[in-house]
Amino acid sequence: MDVSEIGEFGLIERLTEALGAASDSRLVVGIGDDAAVWRTGEAAYTIATTDTMVAGVHFLPGRVAWRDVGWKTLAVNVSDIAAMGGMPTFALVTLCLPPETAAEDVDALYAGLRECAETYGVTIAGGDVVSAPVFSVTVALMGEAAVSETGEPLLLRRDAARVGDAIAVTGPLGGSAGGLRALVERTAGEHPGLVEAHMRPRARVDAGAAAVCAGVRCGIDISDGLVQDLRHICEASGVGAEVRVDDVPLFAGLEEAFGADESRTMALTGGEDYELLLVAPEEVLRATGLSLHAIGRVVEDADRLVRVANAGGGEIAIETPGWDHLQRRGEPRS
Fold this sequence. Notes:
2 domains, 7-stranded mixed sheet, 25% strand
């Protein structure tokens, strides 16, 4: 059996079993969430995440600017910290470079990294450079968790959804998937806003911080697709979810570019929007002060399913709920 048969998330479960239970009592959140969290001192907690971008898998060399690749490489990691309700701090960068890589391209990549770092208050503190047959760049990012008056970490977690909770998103969806489609179809010039959404995502750090301070305890960033990421919450929390498709906000210009049906699919399953998906009682979501879009509710469901309903209440079939690195074939991720 090869890894494509079990998929990315099946492989993660398999690797988790291989590692066994964590024995260090300082670990607060381990494998299975947007980032790991551990105690580093009295009332001090570090959040850590890592992500990699590979040429031809996560971006299209020659069709996107290296500066944008640099921005996105760091931004997707910042989004993981935001998805835990934390604030990003220090990053390490590992470059895997074919020998023929143009030095000017690396300069542009780092210009994008620096621009993103300055935007979110991140310090790039070091890293590594190695030779490789295919270009890739990996970021390991640290952050800090807010703490309560009693010194406990305030975190957004996948396992904190409860039956009856409302489900909301922080912004419109589908723009990144639309930008990817434009890049693949070589129509990027016709859809600059969508391409920017794809290559220059904005991590919702302030929204995550506002959410945890208001008492929201369940959240995730939308990287694999709305349905897929909501499924992660359902599996971790032991619940189900119902989503009202007409309430899912669409990115500006998406429907005009690709039509109603395709735009809806992009918003539900396209991924890489990096908006936050927040789950909490309605009054807690209102207390955040954020302009949220309510899209559904948490329900009892032993199978931990995500159901998408149309205006008449009928269920919409979702063939592919979102991204899986090891199962999807064909178009690149970015």
